[in-house]
Design a protein that fits this description.
single chain; alpha/beta; 11 helices; 47% helix; 13% strand; globular
């Protein structure tokens, strides 16, 4: 952790900034700047809770802790929002993103029926009237912030929605919009000024004086002096756990590449081909070739 500031890409800081009660204006601003509408109100589905995170630390349930602080989920009057940060590229990450989107869309399926039944029970009217549970389904807006490049072009932001390309037609009711914000690509090709301010925020943790008040507020939260002792403890432990996990993954990937290289050497592949296919450096491949089969 930096001495005086925490980067907004830190998992706990991300959760605190966008999922804390009292910070709803920041999340509303984020939704407006990327999806073009401004909800009057939102309700956090998984609010920031440092006490529960600290309890998970004490019981050494680090995997569950990381899962809880990984994303932001909020409900609005006519739609839902999911925010996620994924700094390292994982296998099947396209599939993961669509799974989260689908799960969020389906999560409202029973809400209408449950609400009617609760109201009927409270008023002692007997059995709840029949309702169509599909009436509770509402659009989902998903924003995923990517730390590594995913798409092979220079555009840092793309927003997907169901669209019939041949006829240039959209759904009457759009069930979802899915946005990907790639931080490594810079901000020169972003169209909106506020999106450029968000890029500065996520990459540097600093914004210019022209940034909106809610982005300025998010930036002010990054100061380490504003963190409680519990928050510092949880943050440090998560950072260590992430570093250990990434080191283990790197070791496992290297060992797997070496195993593949040995098999290729046994089949008389050239050093250049092995280097191209495994990513191993030439010295490592030469060392492997000198080892007995």
């Amino acid at each position: 952790m930096a001495q005086d500031k925490v980067l907004p890409t830190n998992d706990l800081m991300y959760k605190k900034t966008f999922a804390s009660e009292g910070n709803e204006d920041i999340t509303i601003g984020l939704i407006h700047d990327f999806f073009g509408f401004k909800p009057e109100k939102l309700t956090l589905k998984t609010p920031y809770d440092i006490d529960s995170y600290s309890a998970l630390v004490e019981s050494e349930r680090i995997t569950e802790l990381r899962r809880r602080i990984k994303d932001v989920s909020a409900s609005m009057a006519t739609s839902d929002f999911i925010g996620e940060m994924q700094l390292k590229k994982l296998r099947f990450w396209d599939e993961r993103f669509f799974l989260y989107l689908r799960d969020q869309y389906r999560s409202n399926y029973s809400e209408a029926e449950k609400m009617v039944k609760m109201a009927a029970d409270a008023e002692e009217k007997g059995a709840a009237p029949r309702v169509n549970r599909h009436s509770s389904l509402k659009p989902v807006y998903q924003l995923t912030i990517l730390g590594e490049n995913h798409y092979p072009d220079a555009y840092p932001l793309r927003i997907f929605e169901p669209y019939y390309t041949k006829r240039k037609l959209k759904h009457l009711k759009q069930p979802y919009k899915q946005a990907f914000f790639e931080l490594e690509k810079g901000k020169s090709k972003l169209d909106a000024a506020n999106q450029k301010h968000w890029h500065d925020y996520f990459v540097r943790g600093e914004v210019s004086a022209e940034a909106p008040v809610y982005i300025q507020k998010a930036t002010g939260l990054l100061t380490v002096a504003n963190l409680s002792e519990k928050e510092r403890e949880v943050m440090s432990l998560v950072e260590r756990a992430v570093a250990d996990y990434e080191a283990d993954m790197a070791d496992a990937q290297h060992e797997n590449s070496c195993r593949i290289a040995r098999n290729m050497l046994a089949k008389n592949y050239s050093v250049d081909d092995i280097h191209e296919l495994t990513g191993l450096d030439m010295d490592t491949i030469e060392e492997l070739s000198a080892q007995p089969v």
